[in-house]
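Checklist before submission:
- one chain only
- standard amino acids only
- sequence pasted in full

Submission:
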Amino acid sequence: MNNIFVSMQTVTIHTSQNIDIDYEVADLGDRILAGLVDIGLFSLLMILCVILAIMTNGYRGFSETMLITALIIYVCMYVFYDLICEIFMNGQSIGKRVRKIKVISLDGAQPTVGQYLLRWLFRIVDFTLTSSLCGIICIAVSDKKQRLGDMVAGTTLIKTQPRTQKDNIAFVPVESDYEPLYAEAAQLNDSDIELVHEVIQTYRQTGNTVVVFNMGKKISEYLKVSPKPEMDSLQFLQTIIKDYNYLASREETV
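Returned file contents:
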């Protein structure tokens, strides 16, 4: 199982392949903006309902039972919205998806239904009973940027937006006259190359040479090749990426 370690602004997931992957922790501002998006959606829904009522000759076209039923449905949607969305949308509400943040378990795995339920139940304390003060204070002072519900459930929120820029993407064109050093790179797939690139980016941001060494060793063992004597682990991985891109592009043109 994956393990997770937390610094001031990042969470580091230690994978079963012995590789550390860093994610930024969602801060208080991200959470507030995501919440405002969700509230805005419900406000828009309410406005649309009022407009519909006006267009159908006011409320005279509705019986009292229909109005009460509609109100109960609306309240239930509002109350259970976060829980249902997080369970069925991989830890995200619509607001969280817009802000590119998601709920993650502190063991590095996707939270269980029980964890989602716990953090949802504690919304009563974090937001309702304390007018959001408890949630805001906990997030602001916690190293893991957790509200009370997250602390009890063993979860936190991370940013899902890729940190790589356009000039640092894994799949880049290779010169037509390029000669690959490792034809065995063709045995890899896009997911493998994305992970190699992520490890290189992690090294560039953290200076952690261990992740590069471990990945180089894994790739070397899997492909049954060895880095050239003049190559270090980083150069080996960069060469593997270039070789893969070249070989993949050649396959597409055949």
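Reviewer check: Confidence is low (pLDDT under 50) at residues 4-8, 162-169.
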